[in-house]
Amino acid sequence: MSLGRTDFEALDRTDPLRPFRDRFVLPEGLIYLDGNSLGALPKDTLARLRQVAEIEWGQGLVRSWTGHGWIDLQLRIGAKIGWLIGARPGETVVADSTSVNLFKLLGTALKLRPERRVILSEPENFPTDLYIAEGLAGLIGGYTLRLAEPDELDAALGPDIAVVMLTHVNYRTGRMHDMNAVTRRVQEAGALMLWDLCHSAGAVPVDLTAADADFAVGCGYKYLNGGPGAPSFLHIAERWQSLVTPPLAGWLGHAAPFAFEPGYRPAEGIRRAVTGTPPILSLAALEIGVDLLLEAPMPELRAKSLRQFDLFARLVEQELAPWDFTIVTPRDHAHRGSQICLAHEQGWPIMQALIRRNVIGDFREPDILRFGFTPLYQGYAEIWDAVAVLKEIMTARSWDLPDHHARARVT
C-alpha cells in the first residue's frame, strides 16, 4: 500500500517525543536532516551561556572555579554521558577533542600491550582516526597501522595486534558493528578494544559495560547537541585506569594540580585522563544538550529513529524509483545507526539543490547523500516533505544548474 502525507501526520500526532521539538531552535520552513553532523541548538543553551558569561565569568571571575563548580564540570558532564553509553561511574570524562582523546587512548593501549606493535582498523573508519593512528605510530617508532575490511577483521587478529580501533556506526554508510561480539573476539585474541562513538552516543543504545569495552571516545556536537566544536568525551575501563600514565600528561590531570610540582603524578581514576584547562563556555553548552537527551527514554528514541529510516526507505522506493538511488545503509535494524545514505552519481549537485530548497543533509565522497535522523526534534511529516522535494528536484533536473556543481570546502 502506498504511503501518503496523512500517514506521516498521524504518526506526528501520536509521537510521545513530539514535545521535545519545541525545546530546540529550528528555523521555520527548514527540514533539518543533518543532526548526525551538527545537532540543533537547545533553547535553554542560550540562557545558560548568558548566565555563565555574565554572572559566573563576568561577576565571579576566577572565583567561579570553586564557587560555580567549574573545576569539576568535566567530571560531572562525563558522568552524565557515561550513563548514556552504559559506562560504570568514574569511567567517563569530557576533555579535549575527539582527535586528541584518540591519541591519548591509543598511546595508553600501546603501553598496556608493549610486546605487540600493530594498531588494527578498517579502511572505512573515519579518516581522522586513521590519521591519528598513523601519526602516533610514526612518532614513537616501531609501530604500524594495519587495515582490514569488516568481514576480514577476525582473520587479521594475530598475536601482533595491540589495539583494535573501530567506529561503532560508520560515518559514511551508517553500518553498525555488533559491539559485544567484536569486543569479545578482539579480547580473546589478546588485544584491546577502542570504540569511536561519535555517531552512536545519544543516537543508538550503547552499553560499554555489557560489552566490556576497554576504551571509547565520542564527540559532543552531533546527537548530544553541544554546539559546533563541543568538547569530546573519553572512556577508560576502571581496570586500566591505575596502570598507565597518559601519553599527554597535563597539569589538570595531576594528583595535585595547584601544588605546581615540577614532576608529574597522575590523579586517581579517570581524572588523570584530563590534560589542560577546560573550555567552560563550551562545557556549559554541552551540559544542556546532554541533560535534554537524558530526559528522553533511549528505547523510544531508537524506535522512532528506526521507524523514520524505514519510512524514508519506503518513500525512496515508492517515489524515486526512476532515478537510480541506491540505499547503502543496511536495512537490518541491528546493523544500522540513525542515518540513511543514498548513493547517486550526481550526489553532490543533488544535495546542493536540496539545501537550496531548505532540506539540509550532507554529502560524503564519492557519491553519498547522507540524511540523519534525530528523533528529539525531527517529525515524521518532514520525512515525507524531504522526499517530495527530492522528487521535484529530480523531475525538473534542477540539480543540474551550474552553481549546484560548484564545490565548497565544507560538504
Question: Would you summarize the structure shown here?
Answer:
The chain is built from 15 helices and 15 strands. The protein is α/β, with parallel strands linked by helices. Helix 1 packs antiparallel against helix 14 and helix 2 runs antiparallel to helix 11.
Strand order of the largest sheet: 4-10-9-8-7-5-6
Q: What is the CATH first-level class name of the largest domain?
A: Alpha Beta
Total number of helices = 15
Q: In terms of structural class, how would the helical and strand content be classed?
A: alpha/beta
Specify the helix fraction band. Answer: 25-40%
- Gross morphology: globular
Order of helices and strands: HEEEHHHEHEHEHEHEHEEHHHEEHEEEHH
From the N-terminal CA to the C-terminal CA, the straight-line distance is 36 Å
Tally of separate domains: 2
Sheet with most strands: 7 strands, mixed
Instruction: Quote the CATH topology of the largest domain.
Output: Aspartate Aminotransferase, domain 2
The count of strands amounts to 15
Features:
Aspartate Aminotransferase, domain 1, single chain, 411 residues, 15 strands, 4-stranded antiparallel sheet, 7-stranded mixed sheet, alpha/beta, Aspartate Aminotransferase, domain 2, 2 domains
How are the secondary structure elements laid out?
Elements: H1 5-13, E1 24-25, E2 31-32, E3 41-42, H2 43-57, H3 64-67, H4 73-84, E4 92-94, H5 98-112, E5 118-121, H6 127-140, E6 144-147, H7 153-156, E7 161-167, H8 179-188, E8 192-196, H9 208-211, E9 215-218, E10 233-236, H10 238-241, H11 280-294, H12 298-319, E11 326-327, E12 339-343, H13 347-356, E13 359-360, E14 362-364, E15 368-372, H14 381-396, H15 402-405
Parallel strand pairs: 2-13, 5-6, 5-7, 7-8, 8-9
Antiparallel strand pairs: 1-3, 4-10, 9-10, 11-12, 12-15, 14-15
